[in-house]
Fold this protein.
Amino acid sequence: PLKRLTIPAIRRQKGKTPLVMLTAYTVRTAQLLDPHCDMLLVGDSLGQVVYGLPSTVPVTLEMMAAHGAAVVRGSYHAVVVIDMPFGSYEASPEKAFESAAWLLKQTGAAAVKLEGGTAMAPTVKFLTERGIPVMGHVGLTPQAVNVLGGYGARGRTPEEAAKIVADAQSIAEAGAFALVIEGVVEPIAIEITTTIACPTIGIGASAQCDGQVLVAEDMLGMFERTAKFVKRFADIAETIASAAQTYAEDVRTRAFPGPEQVYAPKD
Ligand code: KIV
Ligand code: NA
């Protein structure tokens, strides 16, 4: 089997072929996606996708650890990155280190991701210097939904654009090994990508980034409604619904289980 990629290998990929990243929350999804991805993200989007929560704000460290461990067990090639959930890192670099170290110990993952700009730069530096690789996340940062007021694109005014670029540069200078840029207009993605040393991973940030990430369930077509930046590469919702319908019919007509699914007595 392919050897698991390393953080330095991810860094070195900047300016070469784009990096491929998808979310995974479960062992089977990780097994299926792993051979095709450079990185698997155990995103706190699992709050909505797996648990039906209204946002990522209620997600806990324990939830991230349980799913992170499953994804590490289901993968052997991609770098596994785990989102630090809201409330587990913002208060201080020390608090962030304690949370991140616990996550890595519980799961065997290589790195964490955290949201935020200049305010989080000292934390990124603190963790990186102490052996924990950090992926940043700027632009549309869903954990800040209560401040931002929604999930609309960011950086559409010159002031907001300059703020996002400054955020990205401070996180990169603090030592982040890669940076997610979410929900911004293309010129911002270009300015960030061409001025920082680490790879940028776009989601709703154009093809000008050094890589792309999507929520796997979004790109698999599990949901009716998704963001503008999602492309559906499959229609899994339709596949599941029609399988459930056929199963229900077969149960109701006693077509299932058939002779092949029934144990024979011992002779
Ligand atoms: O939680 C998540 O899935 C994410 C990505 C979409 C970047 O943070
Ligand atoms: Na996230």
